[in-house]
């Protein structure tokens, strides 16, 4: 998806310029405003129905404040994730969020889409790291939430409200993050099983293990082949795969790798491969980039109880879906097979998966598909009672529906 061809673009260089641009629009033409960063996730949600103005954060990329000893940093929202990582690495620190296309993705975009990946099991998501924001509402009025220190509990938590809002509530211009130290060692254990039942039993055994992985992934053969090809490592792919990540001191990761290896050998594992610290970065990146859509007809994310994850993965695998699951969290990313070329074929694959997700107290949302399909497929799932509260929040912060109109909920013409 892209913005309408007739959409104009403005490139502010400061929060003040964002305020001026939005205030002028709100008091004048009241055109639709589409906040954009690295443009890696424009396909999320429904397509814009009318042209307007793209408000790019490309020039908002400064480091505002970095008291490294406090393990916090304040940056502008347009900073590229790789550039942020380089800045933090110089101080032996990091933001432990896995981001696809990190050379293009911006911090503001990651916040707006609530992007996360394999390491969410051990380190959480963006909601755990954003402690302060500066944002501008549709009328051009700036507001602040949180602060620049970790121990800040005053007022409503507007930071979490902005995370995952897809730029529909306000334009975030500055973000304060709390950080983690870079680990001395980062390793992964890649495990092939003969069947899903054996893999599921191994995951249950992890609950009794003394090891504490930061990532617990499950992949089917199709996804494993793609991930391994991307990483350029020699790893088995012909069967259900579990991948466990460990980070910490060298002593900690060595002990945990050895301990879990011995435990899995008692759990019918067919094949084991250890990925060393020197090789691990390419596999971490490949796991993160699996979520990127390319030629696949449809990409979805399901969320359900972790205990139901492997059952869901098996059903999806039987339907030909390529799957990577954050098995410890119950989050599943899936690409429909290339031979799904019609809406009817896509729905025949999705319907049983959506039903299973619902039975697991979860949901299934569409990351990307053909734009004409989005008029028939509920991109964000079936409308639920709490959506009414979301509508009221949108009305309060953007009463004229100027920011990304129609991107959430139902297509614009159906609202």
> What is the CATH architecture descriptor of the largest domain?
2-Layer Sandwich
DSSP strand tally:
18
Q: How can the largest sheet be summarized?
A: 8 strands, antiparallel
| Gap from first CA to last CA | 21 Å
- Helix percentage range: 25-40%
CATH topology of the largest domain: Uridine Diphospho-n-acetylenolpyruvylglucosamine Reductase, domain 3
Overall morphology: globular
Summed up, the domain count is: 3
Beta percentage is 15-25%
Task: Provide the residue-averaged pLDDT.
Answer: 92
Low confidence ranges: 410-415
Number of helices: 12
What is the CATH level 1 assignment of the largest domain? Alpha Beta
Spatial strand arrangement across the major sheet:
14-11-13-12-16-17-15-18
Question: Order of helices and strands, N to C?
Answer: EHEEEEHEHHEEHEEEHEHEHEHEHEEHEH
How would you classify the helix and strand content by structural class?
alpha+beta
């Amino acid at each position: 998806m892209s913005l309408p061809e007739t959409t104009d673009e403005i490139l502010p260089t400061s929060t003040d310029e964002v305020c001026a641009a939005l205030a002028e629009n709100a008091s004048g033409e009241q055109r639709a405003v589409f906040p954009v960063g690295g443009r890696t996730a424009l396909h999320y949600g429904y397509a814009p129905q009318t042209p307007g103005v793209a408000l790019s954060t490309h020039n908002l990329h400064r480091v505002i404040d970095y008291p490294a000893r406090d393990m916090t940093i304040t940056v502008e929202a347009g900073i590229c994730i790789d550039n942020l990582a380089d800045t933090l690495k110089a101080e032996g620190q990091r933001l432990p969020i896995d981001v696809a296309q990190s050379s293009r993705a911006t911090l503001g975009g990651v916040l707006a889409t609530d992007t996360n990946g394999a390491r969410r099991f051990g380190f959480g998501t963006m909601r755990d790291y954003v402690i302060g924001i500066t944002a501008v509402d549709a009328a051009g009025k700036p507001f602040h939430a949180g602060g620049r220190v970790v121990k800040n509990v005053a007022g409503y938590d507007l930071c979490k409200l902005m995370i995952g809002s897809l730029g529909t509530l306000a334009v975030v211009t500055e973000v304060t993050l709390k950080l983690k130290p870079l680990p001395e060692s980062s390793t992964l254990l890649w495990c092939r099983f003969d069947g899903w039942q054996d893999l599921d039993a191994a995951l249950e055994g992890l609950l009794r293990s003394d090891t504490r992985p930061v990532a617990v992934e499950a992949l089917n053969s199709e996804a494993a082949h793609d991930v391994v090809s991307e990483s350029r490592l020699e790893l088995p792919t012909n069967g259900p795969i579990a991948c466990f990540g460990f980070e910490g001191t060298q002593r900690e990761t060595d002990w945990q790798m050895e301990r879990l290896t011995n435990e899995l050998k008692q759990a019918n594992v067919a094949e084991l491969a250890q990925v060393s610290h020197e090789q691990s970065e390419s596999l971490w990146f490949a796991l993160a980039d699996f979520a990127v859509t390319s030629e696949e007809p449809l990409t979805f994310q399901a969320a359900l109880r972790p205990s139901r994850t492997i059952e869901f993965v098996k059903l999806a695998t039987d339907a030909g879906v390529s799957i990577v699951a954050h098995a410890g969290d119950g989050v599943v990313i899936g690409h429909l097979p290339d031979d799904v070329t019609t809406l009817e074929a896509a729905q025949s694959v999705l319907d049983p998966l959506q039903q299973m997700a619902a039975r697991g107290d979860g949901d299934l949302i569409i990351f990307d598909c053909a734009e004409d399909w989005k008029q028939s497929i509920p991109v964000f799932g079936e409308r639920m009672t709490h959506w009414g509260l979301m509508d009221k929040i949108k009305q309060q912060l953007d009463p004229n529906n100027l920011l990304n109109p129609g991107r959430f909920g139902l297509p614009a013409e159906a609202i």
